[in-house]
Amino acid sequence: MERRYLILAPHTFATRAAKTAHGVIAYSRDVTVAVVDPENAGKCVRDVLPYLDSDAPIVADVAAGLVHKPTSLLIGIAPQGGGLPPEFRAEIRVAMRAGLEIVSGLHTIIGDDPELAELARTHDSRIWDLRLPPAAPLFSGAAYDIEARILLTVGSDCAVGKMTAALELTRAARDRAVDATFVPTGQTGIAIAGWGTAIDRVIADFAPGAAEQLVLEGERRARDLLVVEGQGGINHPAYAPVTLALLYGTAPDALVLVHVPSRTTIDGYDIPLLGYRELIGTYENLCAGVKPAKVAGIALNTKDLDEAAARAAIEDARQETGLPCDDVVRFGPHALYDAIAPQTQKSAVRHA
Amino acid sequence: MERRYLILAPHTFATRAAKTAHGVIAYSRDVTVAVVDPENAGKCVRDVLPYLDSDAPIVADVAAGLVHKPTSLLIGIAPQGGGLPPEFRAEIRVAMRAGLEIVSGLHTIIGDDPELAELARTHDSRIWDLRLPPAAPLFSGAAYDIEARILLTVGSDCAVGKMTAALELTRAARDRAVDATFVPTGQTGIAIAGWGTAIDRVIADFAPGAAEQLVLEGERRARDLLVVEGQGGINHPAYAPVTLALLYGTAPDALVLVHVPSRTTIDGYDIPLLGYRELIGTYENLCAGVKPAKVAGIALNTKDLDEAAARAAIEDARQETGLPCDDVVRFGPHALYDAIAPQTQKSAVRHA
User: Fold this and answer.
1) Which CATH code is given to the segment(s) A142-343?
2) Domain B4-129 is of which CATH architecture?
3) Full-model pTM
4) Tell me: the pLDDT tens digits for A269-279?
5) Which of A20, A38, A120, B326 could form a disulfide with A60 if both were Cys (CB 3.0 to 4.6 A apart)?
6) Using an 8 Å Cβ cutoff, are A158 and A232 in contact?
7) Can you give the residue ranges of every domain in chain B?
8) Are A350 and B249 in contact (CB < 8 Å)?
9) Which residues of B fall within a CB distance of 8 Å from A144?
10) B284 touching A (Cβ < 8 Å)
11) For residue range A100-133, what is the model confidence (pLDDT) as tens digits?
12) 8 Å CB contact between A211 and A174
């Protein structure tokens, strides 16, 4: 299905809370025809977020967006805890009555909401709950036999750009004629790629098994390289279990560390981010106990710095770690890809 | 409710697979009136597992167990993946038709099974699904303000005795007139204590939040000391995310490491256990990034060793780590408790 998205992000479009909106606009092959945000109505996306480079109009409400002929309403925000903001209901109702598909990555499963499910039936409107996971088996170890190389992005925190780094590195690999696929593990990645599982929504015991299923599916899609979208951060008090489920469940051969140099505390908590060496040591130490994998390079997200400051931050990271480092959005992914991926070798599980 | 348990563990009662049965017989205040295991029918529990010190009879099937007037049928096994073995259905039907309550810690929720739920309604039989979790919020940080000291058992693997160590240390604390409570985090602990949440059953994003709710509830039950039952092991490829959810979510002030000296590989996987120093380093390093906690002592489970070998293993662990070490079942929990708990101080979250 070719989608034409109307994206719902009222009062949040310009902020990090709307990261689902930003990811889909930047990377989905589906067109975004308009964004709902009364604060910026009358402008276009580029006026508010120049880096997104889109002239989609911003409108005041869903009703005003219908003239742009959307097929689907995308909930564009990823709030902490993932509940449905009550003020979104009226807008979702308008979209459903107009026959639009509802695409949501919230933890609140729209299809389980009695009122909205009934409305969908009445108006023949589809619901695509991106985060609704399939039943997953326990981790089996089958991932250890995958022949394609597996690269996992890991972060200093949530919402630093792990999905973006994985998408950009996949693009660079394809430009180098490598048969590569992006492996989506969260709601925005799923919306962009059209497949995947939101690992954070899986029952904890089965989260590594669900992650393993994704790389097994990835192997059916690409022969040479799987670039897995990471989640959370290893000292994030709420999301680290999901980080670890991906670290063990996807059996990576190498890691790419993603960080925002200006960020100093864990998003939403008064806990300091770990430094480069602590982060690299912690991730590599955990991998060493199961299947060894090293951090092969660092992808910095310098969106909020000017170019000189960005270059300085990249140089600092190189100096401190001795690893290749770049901003794969600002300067493109090819240099970082060329520095790390071809050198990545398959690694074996730590056998008894 | 005073329960009289008939425990279902056919062909597994003598093995580690029946750890739920063993835990309830050893630690529940509810009486076990009989165990179902055709392989050992005619014997009593003590004949098969002397350390359990119970003269409950072993019977061939549920029908034969009814003469002992049980109130409840407990599913006594904890299989990998937690599914309902198909051959258990007929026995559960017999129990339900006799009006028994069904107590199950499987991942398969008995109350969600159409046939068994219908049978329960027809025969006025209750179902207690130990693993069915309450809705949990995101981790909030409220656990950082708990005034009681928090001790968490962590392991080298799953099924090494973390629950038992936590129960024994709680008993020792109470013997020392400390207002202490055991905090149950898994199905057997819940059956024993009558409250708690199976963290492994919670949606991954909310697992630390569910763990936090448990220590907040623990603080309402005991003023001085919360002894939290750990889960899994930090290099267990399937269960480590649950381990980490407890490590961050319960905000411990100190850890007690639990290990079976004769165990060399992760249960069900060909991955070597980490050594004492690697384990201690990995757990302490993870805590250091959020809220520092040290391993204060080691509880060895030497059930499968003779006494001389047990004493040697304990001495080896003391030598290698410099920490207090004991087998809290074989030699009682008081010596280890006295060596670690009174020295445990509250620690603070790593603030920015």
Assistant:
1) 3.40.50.300
2) 3-Layer(aba) Sandwich (3.40)
3) 0.96
4) 999 999 999 99
5) A38
6) yes
7) 4-129, 142-343
8) no
9) none
10) no
11) 999 999 999 999 999 999 999 999 999 999 999 9
12) no
